[in-house]
Request: fold
Amino acid sequence: MIGSATVRIALRALAKNKMRAALTVLGVVIGIAAVTAMVSVGMSASALVQGEFENLGTNVIVVIPGNEQSSGGVRRQIQSLTPGDSRALMVECASVLAATPVVFASAPAVYGNSNWTARETFGVDENFPTVRNWQTRLGDFFTERDVASAAKVCVLGHTVVKNLFQTANPIGQTIRVKNIPFEVIGVLETKGANMVGEDQDNVLIMPYTTVRKRLQGSNFDTINIIMASARSSERMKMAEIEMRSLLLDRHKIALGQAADFEVANTTEIANVFSIITGTLTMMLAAIAGISLVVGGVGIMNIMLVSVTERTREIGIRMAVGARSRDILWQFLVESIVLSIIGGAIGIALGVGASIGLTTLINAVSSGRPWPIVVSVPAAVSALVFSAMVGIGFGYYPAWRASRLDPIDALRYE
Reply:
């Protein structure tokens, strides 16, 4: 009787009491839906974090000055990095593709009757587009010659262009920063908001030499940070080791002494965030999975009730030749069918819930939109697990039914 006939009998038995069957699978539906939704939303958060770090550039490694503690106990940054360090990293480190010095500034830009203060105003060199993987949409980026001559040129982000020029073409126009004229030679590609809602297109970029000489009036040969790009993700670790070794040598730091700089690998930071989001996702899925156990207990209780109600039916089946294993399979298949039906409905609800939650988050958040991720492996795993719940919690009632004595079963009222 194992096969399609068993399934048909199981479906007919369940159809006799539709309301009870529906309430029985409710726990499984809620559990599967919760697991699917939580895993999908967690994967969406992980994809968002990974996208944010990829948006920083191609295999970016950042070098920042170290800190020292003053006599008053206050830690202050050491101005230890120079443009020469940046050039040396690119020339002497085989695993480094490009590097750029970065100098920060802050000043409003004026064009005609419009003025706007960019969220970030900073100076870099000609390697910035390679390091950040950020090309120009209009015009060109400045050249090595512009950097060497501290040329009064600049490249704007889309937000700055929109607020200063509205619909006019900014290329070739002149803006004033601290009353100094700068020619706009390029407009960057649009990046949009980052994860915390900050507008990445609200930037004004100049040669770092121009920022130092003309905006800051400084002749010091120091920079704020160095951004470098490894040749590939596989060579990130090697690039970090080469950079650290070279800078220790250039800064004449002896073995055992504290370095006056720090090297941060954005890929490693991204991996840490991925581990954190993955762990949180698994925790949420495990908590949601508790309702699956509750649903399984519900299935077992209902199946035990069903065995008691159908004791006489079991006796009749055994009397006409049904074997114990036929009875076992009959009730076990009923339990599995209940679980699979609940699992299928739960997956559909879970997918809908994950899409709805992601859409709601995007509606109330001002940051970068969360990608809608539907975890197919999680859905398939949930369906398989629901079948296992049916087997695990349905086996005892089925075994109990198969062990009934036919004579006692026929006498049962």
